[in-house]
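sry for the spam today, last one i promise. struct tokens for design, 386 residues
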């Protein structure tokens, strides 16, 4: 069988810490542990957000021209020096993960050199358009995405519900689940820390409703804030804890002046924040999977999420949490009040979350992806199409 050598292309590998970049870093770490050669091509900046795994070839990029989101960048070319490194590496698999111009060039290179192409779908870009007044281009975007993923032998998506969503847009070729994993030892109910709660001004019998993510409005921060505020009218023991940072933080502090804001935390601090909470409320409906929801589940929390693609593939309604109608403050409030109305039920839901999270181990999930790589290697190679 042909040797597995992976060239990974992505729009973000280390300059911004988000679910997609962390997932790809874990994949590269796993591949190297399995002695599978891998080379990453991605935008580079002088001061990246974190130390990445593996060898990365930096490529040119420009800031995204979207109000409030200029921290994200667009990779716009595969320059000659990077192409030379790619040819020297001689991959047998080209894995594209962002539908930008860099990844477009990677597809064309793979086709010209008869190297197998696979893709992964990390961000449901079209779901953001309404937030930024870009609704009119949604149809054209789906046409491009249909072409982009149609060039690949496989497209790896985080959940079965995402497969169904892509099918409605005509993206059906070789679509397979590459789920996300969680470090169940780190995100653990045993990390609950009452002293941490007290130091944050939270009483032992308070019901801490937590949101964890980058603080941007498309994560449905207003739905979170208003649902918590309405629940507090009936039950003053409800308290808000917000974990993360971002451009919406200043305004969110004004909306929820009594909330506890941790700022950006990671590792043990993040695990402690989850486990020291009582309910996880995540109304975002733009996720392809919901890494933070899985971390909350692993930490033993009942989860209230949007009835949308990513989250509902993790949360079983009425078992380890509830689904609420997306963007409905009324429904989120009612479901939150239902969850917190019965302490015994809350504990049972938390135990169910933990049990379900234990089935999402990273090594097992990435081993499945490698098996898919090997399956793709045996398939007909792509050809350059004009």
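last one done:
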């Amino acid at each position: 069988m042909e040797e597995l050598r992976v060239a990974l292309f992505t729009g973000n590998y280390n300059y911004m810490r988000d679910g997609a970049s962390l997932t790809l870093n874990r994949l590269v770490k796993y591949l190297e542990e399995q002695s599978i050669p891998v080379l990453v091509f991605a935008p580079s900046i002088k001061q990246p957000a974190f130390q990445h795994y593996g060898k990365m070839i930096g490529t040119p990029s420009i800031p995204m021209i979207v109000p409030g989101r200029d921290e994200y960048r667009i990779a716009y070319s595969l320059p000659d020096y990077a192409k030379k490194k790619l040819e020297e590496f001689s991959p047998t698999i080209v894995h594209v993960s962002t539908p930008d111009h860099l990844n477009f060039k990677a597809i064309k290179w793979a086709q010209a050199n008869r190297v197998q192409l696979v893709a992964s779908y990390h961000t449901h870009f079209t779901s953001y358009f309404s937030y930024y007044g870009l609704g009119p281009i949604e149809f054209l975007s789906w046409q491009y995405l249909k072409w982009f993923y149609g060039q690949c032998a496989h497209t790896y998506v985080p959940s079965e519900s995402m497969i169904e969503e892509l099918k409605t847009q005509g993206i059906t070729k070789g679509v397979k689940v590459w789920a996300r994993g969680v470090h169940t030892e780190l995100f653990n109910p045993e990390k609950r820390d009452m002293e941490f709660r007290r130091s944050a001004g939270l009483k032992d019998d308070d019901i801490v409703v937590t949101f964890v993510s980058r603080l941007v409005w498309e994560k449905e921060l207003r739905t979170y804030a208003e649902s918590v505020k309405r629940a507090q009218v009936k039950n003053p023991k409800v308290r808000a804890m917000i974990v993360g940072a971002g451009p919406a933080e200043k305004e969110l502090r004004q909306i929820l002046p009594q909330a506890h804001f941790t700022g950006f935390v990671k590792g043990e601090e993040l695990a402690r924040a989850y486990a020291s909470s009582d309910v996880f409320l995540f109304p975002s409906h733009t996720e392809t999977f919901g890494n933070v929801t899985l971390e909350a589940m692993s930490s033993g929390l009942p989860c209230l999420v949007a009835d949308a693609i990513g989250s509902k593939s993790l949360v079983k309604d009425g078992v380890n949490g509830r689904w609420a109608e997306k963007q409905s403050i009324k429904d989120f409030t009612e479901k939150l009040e239902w969850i917190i109305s019965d302490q015994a039920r809350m504990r049972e839901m938390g135990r169910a979350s933990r049990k379900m999270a234990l089935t999402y181990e990273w090594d097992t999930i990435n081993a499945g992806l490698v098996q898919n790589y090997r399956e793709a290697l045996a398939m007909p190679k792509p050809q350059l199409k004009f």
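The mean pLDDT is 92. ok im logging off now
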